[in-house]
Write a structure and sequence with these properties.
single chain; alpha/beta; Rossmann fold; 8 strands
Length: about 400
């Protein structure tokens, strides 16, 4: 599987030691043999095969970070500026002027690309995370999530509101590769069932387009119109859920849907798919699609022009609370699964190894960040605890 062809094979929020080990071995074999020769050539040609690794340690709101970053500006921002300590007057002043321009606004992908060019990609990533946590309601949500995570980890958690149906929508190619990637949500299904929740797994076409899978999701929602529902989906499931909630289901049919958890959803497309749509890379990708028996229409449905146009036309009913779970994706924390794609997209600004960070955020939503992971949440050693903490937090919010 090449760098381009893996972009829709999402790794959802699941993990066990066995899955992690098996996934690492299986995916390295499948991805690397077919794709990394091509990827390495592209990286070498663009001069982006690695990043600087400067140790950095500091606090980003509620989160303690200890990692490496790509530039001294990023290190200063984390260690000094965010701590309110002025050590370099000129740099401090430049950052202060940037913050004055932004105020509390969340920067767009275009603004972040400019910031990354002026400072560095990691600087822009940290800026995005800081501004995201300044959005109304997000700081309180982090505290609630981290409190529940502590309760899950020490065994004191109590699971609320068992009357809510948890609807899980898997990621791309989940039948063949889901046991490796986590796209089949196997671990969350087990965890949530053991916690006493009724879980509905939406069996979408594993190779289907966004539009095809949105129709299946809409049907599943209508079939459970008598139930209180919280729906969750990772990666390529995100735009399909967005489309189902925003257009395919009549607003009068959705009063029972209380929450949508968007787990790294590729809501506005995958830039790398655009790059592999034409020219020599397009021919290479066509060969991969033919060899694997995939459908080109599925990948075309994730081109950024297609998804951004549709994204702008959708409005989720206001009574549905929308939550994003976002891997902050600093260069020092990019997984083996995401590194190739992350490096290829760095020229476009902060990304999670699959899509640009601003393109993950759903409209009228709240966000929880995962500061030291990327798009591939399954490699997070604490992902099982975090999955349960996310559920508890959302159910508590529904109850409120």
């Amino acid at each position: 599987m090449s760098s381009a062809s893996v972009v829709l094979s999402s790794v959802g929020p699941v993990r066990s030691d066995a899955v992690r080990a098996r996934g690492a071995a299986a995916q390295r074999t499948q991805w690397r043999v077919m794709g990394l020769l091509a990827v390495s050539a592209v990286l070498a040609a663009t001069g982006c095969s690695s990043t600087r690794k400067i140790p950095a340690k500091g606090m980003l709101h509620e989160y303690a970070l200890e990692t490496t970053v790509d530039d001294e500006c990023a290190r200063y921002y984390l260690e000094s500026y965010l701590a309110g300590v002025e050590k370099q007057a000129q740099l401090h002043g430049r950052i202060a002027a940037l913050h004055e321009r932004l105020k509390d606004a969340l920067p767009s992908r275009e603004e972040l690309k400019l910031v990354a060019s002026e400072f560095s990609v990691d600087f822009a990533t940290l800026l995005f995370g800081n501004q995201l946590l300044k959005q109304p309601g997000n700081a309180e949500l982090q505290k609630q999530f981290l409190h529940n995570l502590g309760r899950v980890q020490d065994g004191s958690v109590e699971y609320p509101r068992k009357d809510t149906l948890i609807m899980l929508v898997p990621g791309y190619d989940y039948v063949e590769n889901g046991h490796n990637t986590g796209a089949d949500f196997a671990s969350p299904r087990t965890l949530l069932t053991k916690a006493g929740y009724d879980v509905n797994f939406v069996a979408i076409d594993p190779l289907g387009s966004v539009e095809e899978n949105a129709a299946v999701i809409a049907s599943a929602l209508k079939s459970n119109a008598h139930r209180k529902i919280a729906i969750a989906g990772a990666s390529s499931a995100g735009p399909a859920i967005h489309l189902a909630l925003g257009r395919l289901v009549a607003r009068g049919d959705l009063p029972n849907v209380k929450a949508w958890l968007n787990l790294g959803g590729i809501l506005q497309g995958v830039p790398l798919l655009d790059a592999f749509s034409t020219g020599p890379k397009g021919l290479f990708f066509d060969a991969i699609i033919w060899f694997k028996g995939w459908k080109r229409s599925s990948f075309e449905s994730m081109y950024t022009p297609v998804r951004r146009k549709r994204f702008a036309s959708l409005a989720v009913p206001e009574h549905i609370s929308v939550y994003n779970y976002v891997g902050l994706s600093l260069s020092g924390n990019i997984s083996d699964f995401g590194r190739d794609k992350y490096l290829m997209m760095r020229d476009e600004g902060p990304n999670d190894g699959l899509t640009l960070l601003p393109d993950i955020i759903a409209p009228n939503s709240l966000s929880i960040i995962s500061p030291q992971t990327d798009h591939f949440f399954a490699v997070d050693p604490a992902i099982d605890s975090k999955t349960l903490a996310l559920l508890v937090t959302i159910i508590e919010r529904i109850a409120e």
